[in-house]
Amino acid sequence: MAGQADNRAPYAKIAAHYAELITSGQLPPGTLLPSIKNLSEEWSVSTATAEKALRKLRNEGMVRGIHGIGTEVLDQPAPMSSGSQRQDRGRRTGSSWGSGERSDSHKAGVVPAPLDVAQALGIEPRSDVIRRSRVYRDRHGIVAHSTSWIPARYGKLIPQLAESERLTGGTSLQLIAEATGLPISHRIDTASARLLTAEDTQRLELDPENPPTEPVVVMTAKFIDSEGNVVEYGVDLGGPGRTWRTESEVSP
Q: Where are the alpha helices (DSSP H) in 77-206?
């Protein structure tokens, strides 16, 4: 069976395959996944590897084990992705979309920089900045409203950055790195939560007369090139009920 073109361990590739099927709706809630024995045969891995793949899916809340029956798909919204996670995914797969996601409502233009954006980009408040926004959705609804703020000077190098269409030829970061010859060297991420504002309610397409009262997740990512220039500041506003999850290996 074909795995993903990256260096993930076999169990992670198996888990990612079924996560995609689950979040895209191809495996609806209540569906039973193959047994450990069948997984090991289908993927040509050990039973220990197959069991580890199912355990990963259970830890992510996507399935549950039912004694004597098997592993059942659960019906839960997928967590949102941060800008940095989308960058990693775009570099690895060529697409920033998560499993089962799509994006729409792409808008772009040159606008005066708000104070917080100007501070993040290191430019003067109210100076020109490119604002690109889009909405990520899956079968449960809006995953996140995402806005990318880019210094206007990059629009002169890459005119499509200010056009309200999906970018062609790569992500904004890839296009900027290619045009300038300066790779993205590091990024700064933040995560917080806030109560919805009237503007947030509109962005997330919620009923303004009856907005949710619980806080939503807000992720930011500041991307910096090899010469120390801030090339993009991303803000992702999570949909109601969406969580953020990250995972990393821990060395013994």
A: 83-93, 115-121, 153-157, 172-180, 198-203
